[in-house]
Design goal:
Helix content: 10-25%
Strand order of the largest sheet: 4-3-7-8
CATH class of the largest domain: Alpha Beta
Number of helices: 6
Bound molecules: calcium ion
Structural class: alpha+beta
């Protein structure tokens, strides 16, 4: 059974069960502005469709911008993730007028590219007339609201852009409308700003079907710094070095055997000697009294590593790793 679950998780997308969705919500609950699952990232800023598309293309996960795209929502998993993320950013409004508010919808990447003459034929949904922002035509998966797409007209404008509701229903609308937007998430990391000890952080990632993160190269330090900037916000320059907010728990430990560092999945930390340690670390310090040294890996918002304590006195943000990355 365990192996089976593992195999499910290692695939490209991974399907969250009810408990894991709860776990993911807990990870994201104190964030502001950007929210990610391992498939999608949603930004709460309200923008028109063209701006949303541009912003997804420019979203930099630490590997350079220009490669992102507005979300391709081509299966039930991603539609479910999108509902979850919109719900994290904005509350659902059930009243009749409120459900058409800008914050009740999110831009995804589907747009109508052909048969746009407004005729009766053009108003009938035909997947070949539509295209995802990544260039693919829609497959059989669709979630159009009853009566949609209806290709309404406003002067010269037709409803050629798709938006998705809190209930996961699709509607075609005008590109000048302003909504939050979702991009396909190409990153490796889900960050949580919920201050936690190392073992609390480890458990919180596991509850969401994830593991505390690995940072295995200088390049991944850059990616982690980019993820921290996107999800936790830019570093607050007024905070002192050891302020909890300046440190992110990672999934490394030498608790089992002093000096033998392993990731939480048991694999060795080959990058250990290449890590940019904050001098004089790693020092296995024991100043917290009653402790037998420091056995848990943290990374600062400056990209410096430290071995630290798993202690209620060390409540920090943390990073989880997306399966298969
Ligand atoms: Ca419509
Ligand atoms: Ca140690
Ligand atoms: Ca240390």
């Amino acid at each position: 059974m365990k192996l089976f679950l593992l195999l499910l998780l290692v695939g490209t997308g991974y399907c969250l069960d009810k408990e894991q969705i709860k776990g993911l919500k807990a990870l994201l609950k104190n964030l502001d502005g950007a929210f990610a699952t391992c498939q999608l990232v949603l930004f709460s800023e309200l923008v028109d469709y063209d701006t949303a598309e541009q912003k997804c293309q420019n979203f930099d996960i630490g590997t350079g911008s220009g490669t992102g795209n507005l979300a391709t929502v081509s299966d039930e998993d991603k539609n479910t993730d999108l509902k979850l993320l919109l719900g994290m950013a904005y509350d659902v409004k059930e009243d009749k007028s409120g459900r058409w508010d800008p914050d009740q919808w999110v831009w995804a990447g589907l747009r109508k590219t052909t048969n746009n003459d407004g005729s009766q034929i053009s108003r009938t949904y035909n997947a070949e007339d539509w295209e995802w922002a990544d260039g693919a035509n829609p497959n059989d998966f669709k979630k159009w609201m009853k009566g949609q797409p209806d290709q309404r007209k406003d002067g010269d404008n037709l409803q050629n852009q798709m938006r998705i509701s809190h209930h996961g229903e699709w509607d075609d609308t005008f590109k000048y409308k302003k909504h939050p937007y979702a991009c396909d998430y190409q990153g490796k990391y889900i960050l949580s700003s919920s201050l936690s000890s190392w073992s609390q952080a480890k458990a919180a990632c596991e509850k969401a079907g994830l593991q505390l993160a690995k940072v295995r190269s200088d390049q991944e330090v850059t990616e982690m710094m980019a993820a921290a900037n996107s999800f936790l916000g830019l570093r607050d320059e007024s905070l002192k070095t050891w302020n909890p907010s300046n440190w992110i728990w990672l999934g490394g430990s030498d608790a089992a055997e002093e000096g033998v560092w392993k990731w939480v999945d048991g694999s060795p930390i080959d990058y250990f000697d290449g890590m940019d340690w904050r001098p004089p670390n790693p020092d296995n310090a024991d100043f917290l009294g009653g402790e037998d040294g420091q056995h848990f890996l943290a990374l600062s918002r400056w990209g410096k590593f430290d071995d630290s304590f798993d202690s209620k006195k060390k409540q920090r943000p943390f990073a989880c790793q997306c399966p298969g990355t």
